[in-house]
Amino acid sequence: MTPELDPVIHAQARLRVVVTLNTLNEGDRITFPGLKDLLGMTAGNLSVHLTKLEEAGYVEIVKAHKGRTPVTYAALTRRGRLAFEDYTAAIRQLLNTTMTPPSGDS
């Protein structure tokens, strides 16, 4: 049976976002401009993908102020980390299935 891949994470740009946020320690967060620069994405494109991940409960967006300057932070939620673990397990299973010859073949 072929494993199901989470369509929210599977989109290339969102996968890049989740992989990057997953490198942070649990509870840590990154500023929106920092994430944008790391990923080489436009602000609009990143915003769209973060919104989709936030709607799924995978990402938490926090808007704050540093002095008088507004700042937006992004972090992977516990649910997001678990979804990413499930996603990577499904990818590994899929790869193992496709690399193992069917039984009975030589």
Structure description:
The chain is elongated and about 65 Å long. It starts with 6 loop residues before the first helix and ends in a 7-residue tail after the last helix. The protein contains five helices and three strands, in the order ααβααββα. It has one domain (7-95): Winged helix-like DNA-binding domain superfamily/Winged helix DNA-binding domain (Arc Repressor Mutant, subunit A, Orthogonal Bundle), CATH 1.10.10. Strands 1-3-2 form a three-stranded antiparallel β-sheet. Strand 2 and strand 3 (69-76) form a beta hairpin. The chain has helices at 7-10, 12-22, 32-39, 43-55, 78-99; strands at 30-31, 59-66, 69-76. With 106 residues, the protein is an alpha+beta fold. The model has no long low-confidence stretch (mean pLDDT 92). The chain is 55% helix and 17% strand.
Binned, the helix content reads 40-55%
Query: Going across the major beta sheet, what is the strand order?
Result: 1-3-2
Number of continuous helical runs: 5
The appropriate CATH architecture is: Orthogonal Bundle
Distance between the termini: 22 Å
Let me know the number of strands: 3
Identify the CATH homologous superfamily: Winged helix-like DNA-binding domain superfamily/Winged helix DNA-binding domain
CATH class, named Mainly Alpha
Indicate the proportion of strand residues.
Answer: 15-25%
Low-confidence stretches: none
**If you consult CATH, what is the topology?**
Arc Repressor Mutant, subunit A
User: Which sequence of SSEs, written as H and E, runs from N to C?
Assistant: HHEHHEEH
Indicate how many domains the architecture comprises: 1
How would you characterize the largest beta sheet? 3 strands, antiparallel
